[in-house]
Amino acid sequence: MSGHSKWATTKHKKGALDKARGKLFAKLIRQVEVAAREGGGDVEANPTLRTMFQKARDASVPLDTIERAIKRGTGELEGVRYEPVTYEGYAPCGVAVIVECLTDNRNRTGADIRAIFSKNGGSMAEPGAVSWQFERKGVVSVPREAKLDEDELTLVAADAGAEDVRDNGEGWDVVTPPSELAAVRAAIEGNGWPASAELTMQPSQSVPISSEGDARKVLRLIDLLDDHDDVQNVYANFDIPDSVLELVVA
């Protein structure tokens, strides 16, 4: 599991769950809307919309809320027009960061993201300066309570097109090419195992963060980016040991 994924999991356990849930709903609804606008409102014919639809359902977003978002995206209902924009930069300690946004005002969002970086020990970078260190992947997560045999999971996943199966401490992450995400999830669920899926950016190399002070600096910047209303995803290549992470969230 990447450092940022591990931190997000830990933070959501410790944080204000209702507030986090409300923010997550807003982000997912916006993603559904943009996917429908760019590829059409047919979930079966639009793979991106299908992924976003399922992600929203996994997070318990009400079905009628998702359907209204799709209609706003296709123009059947009026709504704000959002566009995707990605920013790249560095957190303290040279940690590479990618920030994916959906915004109705690029100038405002760009200024906000730049300010967050500069005020918290980071810096913005030119497009492409950071992204080469990441690769787009699909990840199907299977919880530990599924009580499955890892070898059997690996075999099923590989037959469906997965690249790797990793123990994340609380279950397994099945890594796939983006194009195989839906098929791998379907194969896993077809065996009766619960699963959730998402598209993510995985770093090709990590920056180790060994001190509590450095960890706090990096995670403060990541949290502030995550909390911005226009930010959909933040990817970073830090690797903080569990022992240090426990000190930060204690």
Topology:
Elements: H1 3-14, H2 17-39, H3 47-58, H4 63-74, E1 83-91, E2 95-103, H5 106-119, E3 123-125, E4 134-143, H6 150-160, E5 164-167, E6 171-176, H7 181-190, E7 196-203, E8 207-208, H8 212-227, E9 231-236, E10 238-239, H9 242-249
Helix pairs in contact: 2-3, 2-4, 6-7
Description:
- This protein has 250 residues and is α+β, with helices and mostly antiparallel strands.
- It folds into 3 domains: 3-74, Orthogonal Bundle (Arc Repressor Mutant, subunit A); 83-132 and 205-249, YebC, transcriptional regulation domain (Alpha-Beta Plaits, 2-Layer Sandwich), CATH 3.30.70.980; 135-203, Alpha-Beta Plaits, CATH 3.30.70.980.
- It has helices at 3-14, 17-39, 47-58, 63-74, 106-119, 150-160, 181-190, 212-227, 242-249; strands at 83-91, 95-103, 123-125, 134-143, 164-167, 171-176, 196-203, 207-208, 231-236, 238-239.
- The longest helix has 23 residues, at 17-39.
N- and C-termini, Cα separation = 21 Å
Give the overall form. globular
Which oligomeric state applies? single chain
> Structural class of the helices, strands and pairings?
alpha+beta
Q: How do the helices and strands follow one another from N- to C-terminus?
A: HHHHEEHEEHEEHEEHEEH
Q: If you compute it from the alpha carbons, what radius of gyration comes out, rounded to the nearest whole angstrom? A: 18 Å
Share of β-strand residues: 15-25%
What is the number of helices?
9
Tally the structural domains.
3
| CATH fold category name of the largest domain | Alpha-Beta Plaits
Please tell me the CATH architecture of the largest domain by its name. Answer: 2-Layer Sandwich
**Low-pLDDT ranges:** 12-16
Number of DSSP E strands:
10
CATH superfamily of the largest domain: YebC, transcriptional regulation domain
Described by strand count, sense and barrel closure, the largest sheet is: 4 strands, antiparallel
Residues in helix, % = 40-55%
Strand order of the biggest β-sheet: 3-1-2-9
| Average pLDDT | 89
Output the CATH class name of the largest domain.
Answer: Alpha Beta
